[in-house]
Write a structure and sequence with these properties.
The structure holds 2 protein chains of 2 kinds.
Chain A lengths: L3 H18 L5 E6 L2 H6 L1 H14 L6 E6 L11 E5 L5 E3 L4 H13 L13
Parallel strand pairs in A: 1-2
Antiparallel strand pairs in A: 1-3, 3-4
Helix pairs in contact in A: 3-4
Chain B lengths: L3 H14 L4 E9 L2 E8 L6 H6 L16 H10 L4 E7 L8 E9 L11 H11 L4 E8 L2 E6 H8 L7 H18 L2
Parallel strand pairs in B: 1-5
Antiparallel strand pairs in B: 1-2, 2-4, 3-4, 5-6
Helix pairs in contact in B: 1-3, 1-4, 4-6
Classes of the chains: A alpha+beta, B alpha+beta.
C-alpha cells in the first residue's frame, strides 16, 4: 500500500530540492484545460507532459501548468511553450504521441517542431 | 465527452475558477444507479445565473464558466433516464458560497457513458491547482476509495502537492485502492 509513511519519505527527499528550484524554471508548458480542451483530449496530453518531463529529468528547467480557454477551440488540445527571451510557441491538435516528439526535440534540444505549430495546421 | 471522468474534471475546474478552496467529488454506486456529486465553496451563483447554466446558448463574457460543460453533463445523465440538479448559494461578506452539482445516472442503460479514468482526473486537478484542496470519495457497496489533499498537505508541509513524485504517489495510491474495489 502506498502509505503516508512513503509520502513522508518523499517530503524529506524533496525538501532541499524545492528551495534550490525556486526562481528557476525557464521554460513553461501551458495546456488549455477548459471544456473545449478537455473534450478534445487535453487530459492525456497534460499527463503525457507531466510524466514525460519527469522521465526526461527536465523538471528543474520545465514547469507544466494549466490554463483556461485559449480561444481556438477547434484546434484543441492546445499547448503553449513559453521561454524567457523567445517568442511563444503554440502547438495545436496535440496528442500524447506528439508530446513525446515535442519533449525530445523542443524541450530537450531547443528545436521547435514546426509541423505541430498553429501556423502549419 | 467520452468519459464521465472528463465531465467531473470540467465541473471541478469551474469550481476552482469560482475561487473554491475545497472541492469535493463524491461518487456513489448502488446497484445500477451512479450518483455523482461535485460540491465546492467557491463564489456560488445567483438564482438567475443558476437558471441559465443548463442553457448551452447562454454565455456572456463576464460568466465564462457558463458554456457547454453543464449542458453536456445534463445530456449524459438524462440520456440514461437520470437527472441533473444544481443548487447554489452566493458568497456573502461573512460566509463562503456553496455550489453542489448532483448528477444521477442509470449505469445499466445502453446510452450510459462509461465513468472512465477518474484517477487521471484527480491527479490532473491536483497537478494544476496544488494550492487548493480536493476531497475524493468513490463508494460502491462496502468498498470505498478515498483521497483528501488536506491529509496529504499535513504530511508534506511546504513541499507542493504538484511535485512529480507526489503526483506519482497519488496515482499509485488510488490505483491500489481501486484494485480491491472493482470486482
Amino acid at each position: 500500500m502506498k502509505s503516508l509513511a512513503e509520502l513522508k519519505a518523499i517530503k524529506d527527499r524533496m525538501k532541499d530540492k524545492v528551495i534550490l528550484r525556486e526562481g528557476s524554471g525557464d521554460v513553461r508548458v501551458v495546456v488549455g484545460m477548459a471544456t473545449c480542451g478537455i473534450a478534445a483530449g487535453a487530459r492525456p496530453v497534460l499527463n503525457a507532459f507531466v510524466e514525460g518531463v519527469t522521465a526526461a529529468k527536465l523538471t528543474d528547467k520545465v514547469t507544466v501548468s494549466q490554463t483556461g480557454c485559449i480561444g481556438l477551440c477547434q484546434l484543441e488540445p492546445i499547448v503553449e511553450v513559453h521561454e524567457a527571451g523567445k517568442e511563444k510557441v503554440t502547438y495545436v491538435k496535440m496528442t500524447p504521441e506528439k508530446v513525446e516528439t515535442v519533449i525530445e526535440k523542443h524541450l530537450k534540444n531547443g528545436k521547435v517542431v514546426t509541423e505541430f505549430t498553429v501556423a502549419d495546421v | 465527452m467520452k468519459e464521465l471522468s472528463l465531465n467531473i474534471l470540467d465541473i471541478a475546474e469551474n469550481s476552482v475558477k469560482a475561487g473554491a478552496s475545497l472541492t469535493e467529488i463524491i461518487l456513489n454506486e448502488e446497484s445500477d444507479t451512479l450518483t455523482m456529486t461535485v460540491r465546492d465553496n467557491g463564489s456560488g451563483m445567483s438564482e438567475e445565473t443558476l437558471r441559465s447554466v443548463t442553457d448551452p446558448f447562454y454565455t456572456t463574457r463576464t460568466t465564462r464558466k457558463v458554456g457547454l460543460g453543464i449542458p453536456l453533463l445534463k445530456l449524459a445523465c438524462e440520456q440514461t433516464g437520470g437527472t441533473l440538479t444544481i443548487t447554489s448559494r452566493l458568497m456573502t461578506a461573512s460566509l463562503p458560497g456553496e455550489t453542489t452539482v448532483t448528477a444521477i445516472f442509470n449505469t445499466a442503460h445502453i446510452d450510459a457513458t462509461p465513468l472512465g479514468d477518474v484517477i487521471s482526473t484527480v491527479v490532473t486537478l491536483i497537478q494544476g491547482h496544488p494550492n487548493r484542496d480536493f476531497y475524493f470519495l468513490h463508494k460502491k457497496g462496502s468498498h470505498t476509495v478515498e483521497l483528501d489533499t488536506r491529509a496529504l498537505r499535513e504530511v508534506l508541509e511546504d513541499v507542493p502537492l504538484s511535485t512529480p513524485d507526489v503526483l506519482v504517489w497519488v496515482r499509485e495510491n488510488l490505483e491500489e485502492q481501486y484494485k480491491e474495489f472493482i470486482i
